[in-house]
């Protein structure tokens, strides 16, 4: 029997994916941080935060595999909430040290946080399109050791990951998209103007 918290986490993740699919079908997902998608991410993050405060990180032992995966997805997608993502990374890292979540989960979240902060990633999990829409890894710290680090957390090689990557849909106005993205990084708090 699935717990109500597990059912809720799964439903939240499905809502996230459903909104993503809807915006993708409308051809507007890649035009920037869409307000409807951002609203879903924020609402899901608020609920996950409440669950974490009540019971700790929702591990597979607590909520089952599907709900634990849903919790990770919600954290990974809460990109408009830097402090929440950083808190989730702390929870995931501790759970990973205890063997309660796969090592790749905090690895991927750490890379995402580093990318938004403007720092090189560690595991090469965050990809970005080149001018033709082909995906490549965002800047990597110590690229020579990336496959060793990936292997240590249960990920395949970067070359294998890139071989599976489908070309990205580029925004209609790439320069405007980049300006909007840079402004968003400051507006939500990933970066601070000096």
Written account of the structure:
This protein is mainly α. It has 2 domains: 1-101; 117-194, no CATH class. 61% of the residues lie in helices and 3% in strands. It is built from 9 helices and 2 strands; from the N terminus they run H-H-H-H-H-H-E-E-H-H-H. A two-stranded antiparallel ribbon has the order 1-2. Strand 1 (127-129) and strand 2 form a beta hairpin. Helix 2 packs across helix 4. The longest helix has 22 residues, at 4-25. The protein is globular and about 45 Å long. The N and C termini lie far apart (53 Å). The mean pLDDT is 94.
- Number of domain modules: 2
Largest sheet: 2 strands, antiparallel
Q: By helix and strand content, what is the structural category? A: mainly alpha
Helix residue percentage: 55-70%
Uncertain runs = none
Task: Name the helix and strand elements from N-terminus to C-terminus, one letter apiece.
Answer: HHHHHHEEHHH
> Care to count the β-strands?
2
Give the spatial strand order of the biggest sheet. Answer: 1-2
Count of DSSP-assigned helices? 9
Shape: globular
Terminal-residue CA separation: 53 Å
Round the Cα radius of gyration to an integer and report it.
17 Å
Overall residue-averaged pLDDT value: 94
Q: Give the amount of beta strand, in percent.
A: under 5%
Give the topology:
Layout: H1 4-25, H2 35-55, H3 60-63, H4 65-77, H5 82-97, H6 104-117, E1 127-129, E2 135-137, H7 146-152, H8 158-164, H9 174-188
Antiparallel strand pairs: 1-2
Helix pairs in contact: 1-2, 1-4, 2-4, 5-6
Spell out the key features of this protein.
3% strand; two-stranded antiparallel sheet; 194 residues; 2 strands
């Amino acid at each position: 029997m699935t717990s109500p918290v597990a059912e809720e986490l799964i439903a939240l993740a499905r809502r996230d994916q459903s909104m993503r699919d809807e915006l993708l079908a409308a051809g507007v997902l890649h035009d920037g941080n869409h307000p409807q998608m951002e609203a879903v991410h924020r609402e899901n993050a608020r609920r996950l935060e409440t669950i974490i405060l009540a019971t700790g990180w929702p591990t597979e032992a607590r909520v089952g595999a599907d709900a634990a995966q849903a919790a990770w997805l919600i954290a990974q997608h809460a990109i408009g909430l830097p402090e929440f993502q950083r808190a989730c990374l702390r929870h995931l890292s501790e759970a990973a040290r205890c063997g309660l979540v796969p090592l790749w989960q905090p690895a991927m979240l750490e890379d995402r946080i580093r990318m938004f902060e403007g720092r090189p990633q560690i595991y090469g999990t965050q990809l970005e399109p080149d001018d033709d829409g082909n995906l490549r890894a965002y800047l990597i710290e110590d690229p020579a050791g990336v496959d060793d680090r990936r292997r240590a957390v249960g990920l395949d090689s970067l070359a294998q990951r890139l071989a599976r990557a489908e070309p990205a849909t580029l925004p209609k106005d790439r320069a405007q998209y980049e300006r909007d993205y840079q402004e968003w990084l400051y507006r939500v708090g990933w970066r601070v103007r000096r």
